[in-house]
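Hi F.,

I've been meaning to write this up properly since the lab meeting, where we talked about keeping a consistent format for the predictions we share between groups. The idea is simple: the sequence comes first, exactly as it goes in, then the structure tokens exactly as they come out, then a line or two of notes. No screenshots and no reformatting. I'm using this chain as the first example so we have something concrete to point to.
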Amino acid sequence: MTATTPNGNMTAMVLEAAHRPLQLQHLPLPKPDAGQVLIKVRACGICRTDLHIIDGELANPKLPLIPGHEIIGEVMTTGDAVDSLWAGDVVGVPWLAYTCGSCRYCLSGRENLCDQALFTGYTINGGFATHCIAWAKYCFKMPRAYTQADAAPLLCAGLIGYRSYNMLPAYAKT
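Output, unedited:
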């Protein structure tokens, strides 16, 4: 798969309907809105959740959809109001793509329960493409040791384990 087609489009594997094979498509290169970044995907892992979506086992995905939420990529451009990431930064993009930031769940550190949450590769397009859009606030700037394809699963299983560990009482961590 090439990075972009000659006319500036990107290539992506698109889910048109559950129980159907993904389709290779050439799509317009997306442009980041305020608070978002355009990312050139280096790698995107395949999670069992992706397969649940493709197999129709998770209700109401955005269709057509570009799946994939274990993304490692390089920031290409930023939208307005992004001051935490710059072109050239290597970032990780996880399942949780956006939350309201003001509901009781967000305010109590349980933003994954936000009623307005969006999810990468489920309710917004993900990383089975040469490029993707993500909210900068939900991207993780990756340390140099974790900028290649083998780090992609850390954006799902790694985050779940890390978050769970951090929720343990201090005495349980010893």
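Notes:
Strands lie at 9-14, 23-28, 36-45, 70-78, 90-93, 96-98, 118-119, 131-135, 140-141.
The longest helix spans residues 157-167.

If this format works for you, I'll send the rest the same way.

G.
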